[in-house]
Amino acid sequence: MTWYLGYATTGREREVADDHTARGIHTWCGMVTVEKLAPKSKRKGPRVVTVEEPALPNYLFFEAEPDQFYQIKHKYLARTLTQLGPQSVREFDKYRQRVAEMDVIKSLRPGDMLEVTRSPLAGQMVRLKRLVEGRMDVEVTMFGGTVPANVSMDDVKVV
């Protein structure tokens, strides 16, 4: 099987992916759950809504046999497809795994325990205080007390 990269019209990624999946072509568009502020309404105060959107807007990945290549087409898909080489496939697999981990990380609640995998705190167990735009405020237990720290979401894993 070979991976191909395609470019879809904005907002049509899910439609293109569903169409190809129905035809038996494995498709990945990496949907992630995101919290956004809803447009102003008559109700007072900000309103947060949870939406699903592509991790890489407009881009879709297709895994197909060479003879299925010409079946990868859709009215909302650009005419050009790029075949991914071995190094690109490895990077793509890492990215897909990271997107799956991000969904797990976004489901965390204050008080959850995490392990730091990178940074000077690597190997330390930390307690989550809050998530702040791609970073985490955590508490590290060291020297007989707790010390506040700020780490990237990319630098932790759920225990």
What do these coordinates show?
With 159 residues, the protein is an alpha+beta fold. The chain has two domains: 2-106, Alpha-Beta Plaits, CATH 3.30.70; 113-158. Helices cover 19% and strands 43% of the residues. It contains two helices and eleven strands; from the N terminus they run βαβββββαβββββ. It has a five-stranded antiparallel sheet with strand order 10-9-8-7-11, with helices on one face. A four-stranded antiparallel sheet has the order 2-5-1-6, covered by helices on one side. The longest helix is centred in the middle third of the chain and has 21 residues, at 86-106. The protein is flat.
Quick recap:
Helices cover 19% and strands 43% of the residues.
